[in-house]
Amino acid sequence: MDRLENARKSVLKASRSYYAHLAYYEDLLAQRDRTAAKTTERELEFLEFAFRTHATRGIKDVLDVACGNGPHVIGLAHRGYKCTGQDYTPERVEMAKARAKRECVSVKLSQGDATRLEYQNEFDAVIALKIIFLLPSDDDVVRSLRQIHRALRSGGILVCNIYNPLYVGKGWFSGVIQKGLYVEESRARGIRITTINQLQDFDTIKGAAWEKETSIIEAPDGIHVFRDRERVRLFTYWDMLHYLQVAGFKEIKCYSDWKIKPPKNPKAKTLIFTSRKD
Ligand SMILES: C[S@@+](CC[C@H](N)C(=O)[O-])C[C@H]1O[C@@H](n2cnc3c(N)ncnc32)[C@H](O)[C@@H]1O
Fold first, then answer.
1. Quick check: CB of 67 below 6 Å from ligand 1?
2. Contact (Cβ atoms closer than 8 angstroms) between residue 185 and residue 217
3. Which of 34, 43, 205, 219 is the one with CA 20 to 30 A from 140?
4. What is the pLDDT of residue 7?
5. Of ligand 1's atoms, which has the minimum distance to the CA of residue 136?
6. What angle do CA 139, 114, 230 make, to 5 degrees?
7. Residue 250: beta bridge partners?
8. Which residues are registered as beta bridge partners of 152?
9. Whose CA is nearest to atom 4 of ligand 1?
10. Residue in 41, 96, 48 with CA at minimum distance from that of residue 68
């Protein structure tokens, strides 16, 4: 029991330090990078499509679990939803608060763990983007999905996503998992972030990998190098379907790569699940 709890704490600690290191610089990049803004717009379009298509109630109150620096929760607030966001990393919450203030939108933001959600029948929709595969264990995943189910009102929906481990094209997940190395550069005026991701360890029983990440940041306040590690769980379509069903969700649909049409490609890079609470 102690060993499990220690393993859990070590995953959370590594994740927290990684997201804390990058919070400020990713926010700066997001402010200056037009391509990232367009990607977020496309994701927001998809979220609204999912709300319209799969919920059987009107969507007003939205919770963003692991909201990060707030791109989606703030984007939805701009579109008229009443938004709440929470994230485990306090530095991310502060970035999201500063962004909401800068953009003059009202969003309720706080620090919180995705596996310790205490809401009950409070939201019409919950979004949990790029988080499920970062949770410390599969027990945490089920716990979190059950808590999200409880947080939803009847007829409300959850939208969550995973990187597809069966995807073989270019990208962070496939690069690290299949080739053991992925290097990426993101740049905008006055800032460049180069990340070198290396596969460090792989647990074939639990389907999880540890990656070592070196981030080299060239920013207005100087050059910084951060060395972090992160655990990622390689969920397949079938794993996610199973866990969503175990958590009590119905009408589970899967889309690929944020496309607003029935999915055709089982090898898509990103799988997005919509599921409803009856
Ligand atoms: C890859 S980022 C995704 C952020 C945002 N959802 C998005 O799509 O841009 C993962 C986020 O999850 C947060 N996180 C990691 N573990 C968490 C946990 N147990 N509970 C809540 N947030 C967590 C990190 O701090 C980070 O902001």
1. yes
2. no
3. 43
4. 87
5. 19
6. 75
7. 276
8. 123
9. 68
10. 96
Nearest to 48 by CA among 127, 114, 109: 127
Confidence of residue 117 (pLDDT cuts 50, 70, 90): very high
Residue 1's pLDDT band (boundaries 50, 70, 90)? low
Q: Ligand 1 mean position to 91 CA, how many Å?
A: 11
* Over residues 23-51, mean pLDDT: 95
**Do 165 and 177 contact (CB within 8 A), yes or no?**
yes
CA–centroid distance, residue 205 to ligand 1 (Å): 24
Which of 8, 93, 134, 186 to mutate to test ligand 1, by most ligand atoms within 8 A of the CB atom?
Answer: 134
Single-letter code of the amino acid located at 28: L
Structure tokens at 49: 């499509």
Sheet containing 250-256: give its strands across: 107-111, 82-87, 61-65, 123-128, 152-163, 270-276, 250-256
What does the block give as tokens for 125? 């929709």
